[in-house]
Specification:
Number of strands: 6
Radius of gyration: 16 Å
Strand content: 15-25%
Order of helices and strands: HEEHHEHEHEHEH
Helix content: 25-40%
Shape: globular
Largest sheet: 4 strands, parallel
């Protein structure tokens, strides 16, 4: 964890198309704490939850370039422990009047399991219990237990201002998800 805190210092920023988006101390601390709960796991690869910082910066960019947007929609495949959905809910709550997060995963929100996370010492927990410290942000997150292919067959595409495709990692599946989301996006929306 010490290595993570050193890597994600208090002066975090993202550069997107030559624009710099700085994260304030509270935003960095939030992402770091959320990362500790949901992203720090036992694994062979390096711990990396930089996508949370990127999503925060992308939402700041959307707000800057589209100041009239008051209600945004975020779509995600691959909920896992809920890191991205909660990070987006946190910053969207600060930037927009209203927002909706739609996130899909084959793991349901209520089954108790070990998550290979810091809280596993407390025993099996549901995703809802894992995210209990963030319960004030959860009402705007729609957790769907399904594969993206099934969801897309049952639902018409809607406009999503920002989408994060992190479920299946095959070219075919990502391409299918990308095309489904892109159908109703407008200039300035991001996948």
């Amino acid at each position: 964890w010490d290595a993570c805190q050193q890597f994600y210092r208090q002066d975090a920023q993202c550069t997107l198309n030559d624009e710099i988006f700085k994260l304030n101390t509270g935003e960095v601390e939030f992402i770091n704490q959320l990362g500790l709960v949901t992203q720090v796991t036992i694994k062979n690869s390096k711990i990396d939850y930089s996508h949370g910082f990127l999503l925060v910066c992308l939402l700041k960019r959307l707000k800057k370039h589209n100041p009239k947007i008051q209600n945004i929609r975020f779509f995600e495949t691959g909920t896992a422990r809920g890191f991205s959905a909660v990070a987006v809910s946190y910053i969207a709550n600060e930037l927009f009047e209203d927002y909706q997060v739609t996130t899909l995963d084959v793991l349901d929100h209520y089954t108790k399991r070990y998550w290979n996370s810091i809280g596993d010492s407390e025993g099996r927990r549901s995703r809802q219990e894992l995210l209990d410290d963030y319960r004030n942000l959860l009402p705007k997150i729609n957790f769907f237990t399904t594969r993206a292919t099934s969801f897309m067959k049952k639902n018409e595409p809607q406009r999503f201002h920002l989408a994060f495709l992190d479920g299946q990692h095959t070219y075919r599946d990502v391409r299918r998800e990308f095309n489904w989301v892109a159908k109703n996006q407008k200039v300035g929306d991001i996948i």
